[in-house]
Design goal:
The chain is of the alpha+beta class. The protein contains five helices and nine strands; from the N terminus they run βαββαβαβαββαββ. It has two domains: 84 residues, Alpha-Beta Plaits (2-Layer Sandwich), CATH 3.30.70; 71 residues, Alpha-Beta Plaits. Helix content is 28%, strand content 36%. A hairpin with a 3-residue loop joins strand 6 and strand 7.
């Protein structure tokens, strides 16, 4: 009787399993000076990772600090490596993974908001329906003519996506989005004290 030959057990057994890819929101506090954004973003592009959302603004004028909020997707070990490498860039003061911080506390995640301007052109029933739906989504009309509206809508990215999808058949012309602004829940702050 021939038994199948089993490969020897090895401590170096490699599987074909790929680590799960997660969406992460990172808050990066940096010096507000030329070239810092390019260095931070270069770390992502150098490793072939896409940035889904990017917002940057000065947050402390007296200390010359800015906050970069990045939404990206990647395997947890790679995100940890990116965070570690970001921490080593000289003008970076602090890197906080808002998604991971929230997961550790059992929260619903960081508070995330986005602003979008949505232009819709239409007449007749489509125009009336666009106005009705904008009221449901609490979108504000910021410009109007006889043949178009520009709506301003704020909220989670999923809300904005849904609003855009609903406006598409009613005459969607153009969309401009700010990107995600995010903050951790609770008492902790992402900035340097």
């Amino acid at each position: 009787m021939n038994l199948p030959v089993q490969p020897p057990a090895s401590a170096y057994f490699i599987t074909d399993e790929k680590p799960s890819v997660e969406s992460r929101t990172l808050s990066i506090v940096v010096d507000n000076e030329p070239g810092v954004l390019a260095r931070v973003i270069g770390l992502f592009s150098g490793r072939g990772y896409n940035i889904e959302s990017l917002t940057v603004s000065e947050t402390d004028h007296n200390k010359h600090l800015s906050r970069i909020t990045v939404v990206t997707r990647g395997a947890p070990p790679v995100i940890e490596q990116l965070k570690s490498q970001l921490d080593r860039i000289v003008p970076v003061h602090r890197v906080v993974d808002l998604t991971k911080t929230a997961m550790g506390l059992g929260d619903d995640g960081p508070i995330e908001r986005e602003l979008a301007l949505v232009k819709v052109a239409g007449k007749g029933d489509d125009r009336v329906e666009a106005l009705r739906l904008s009221d449901v989504f609490r979108a504000k009309v910021v410009d109007s003519t006889t043949d178009h509206f520009v709506f301003e809508i704020t909220g989670k990215g999923s809300k904005i996506e849904k609003f855009i999808q609903i406006m598409a058949p009613l005459g969607l012309v153009e969309v401009c989005r700010t990107g995600v602004a995010a903050m951790a829940r609770g008492r902790d702050a992402a900035h340097e004290s």
